[in-house]
Amino acid sequence: MAKQSLGYTELEWTCPFCNTRNKGRAKVCVNCGAPQPKDVKFEQAAEDKPVTDSEGLEMAKAGPDIHCPFCGTRNPATAVKCSRCGGDLTEGERREAGQVLGAQQSKPAADVICDYCGTANPAANTKCKNCGSPLRKAAPKPAAAPAPAPAKMNPAFLIIGAIVALIICGALAFFVLRGTQTETNVARVSDVNWTRSIVVMGLAPVTRNTWADQVPQNAEVNYCEQRERERSAFPTGNSQEICGTPYIVDEGTGFGEMVQDCEYIVYDDYCEYTTVELQPIGLLDESGSDLSPFWPETRLEQDQQLGDRRETYQITFEVDGESVVYETTNAAEFARFQPGSEWQLEISGFGNIVDIQPAP
Ligand SMILES: [Zn+2]
Ligand SMILES: [Zn+2]
Ligand SMILES: [Zn+2]
């Protein structure tokens, strides 16, 4: 984020003794003459008008003012002696600076009504144009509606939720118990089946997307479009500046700097391209219903390769007139199950085969 200055605006401070609002550049209260105490902060004016007079601009940029260690009067950063008492300012304390006071108020502020005579005054005025009494600060602009408070949970929902949780726990416990209970059965092999397959890899076109500078050399670019690639603090050949809401930073001089945080959206070409890559283009497979599985015959064309191999074996057992299927990828295990042979199966509550032993 790069900071951009939009110039300076004059702040205000309110006299704690007579409640009069004073312009930022006033070192002492225009009404009662009291110096601005160090702990009386500057505030944004009702409307942030840019400072245009050269004297004001010079004051704004001079660096935080110094409070006289003897009488407390605010003096400009460049002063050596207090303008009020002549005291030496080298031991004086500089005002704090750099605090963000708020978003820039660039719209004209509403008039302020005098509490004493009811006259409408421009918000920038510190004294009533009719009766001369001090004017209070213009009411701040209504802030954005606060986020709605999180809705309170209806107690009925809590009760229903608790009941549902209980049911789920009960069901889980039931299934876990059932799953651990097993039954031993004598079974006969009624069917054996196998499948073996090999993936064939070949060169074929494939479409992908990436930034123009990352498209592979041999690829054919189909089309490109401009997209946001990154954010940058600096402008580039193809970028667009975006800035946040301007805000006011207390300079400690009675003036605030109007600042804006900006960055650049950097655009680039994002392209779709087609390239030729080795990828699965076919499947060779064999299957059978015996105990002699074999791999498919492979005849490869130029630029083709063999990919992943898969083998699955299924043994169907007859248990009390019902069929139970056992599946494995182990060819040696599969070879043991002669059709018609008898086995002792341990079957879980879910109907899964947990253990297989030769029948005694
Ligand atoms: Zn005063
Ligand atoms: Zn002094
Ligand atoms: Zn008045």
Automatic annotation (TrEMBL):
GO MF annotation, one: zinc ion binding
Pfam families cross-referenced by the UniProt entry: Zn_ribbon_RanBP
Residues annotated as domain RanBP2-type: 5-38
Transmembrane segments: 156-177
UniProt keywords, alphabetically: Membrane, Metal-binding, Transmembrane, Transmembrane helix, Zinc, Zinc-finger
InterPro entries membership: Ribosomal_eL40_sf (IPR038587), Znf_RanBP2 (IPR001876)
Name of the protein this chain belongs to: RanBP2-type domain-containing protein
Organism: Candidatus Promineifilum breve
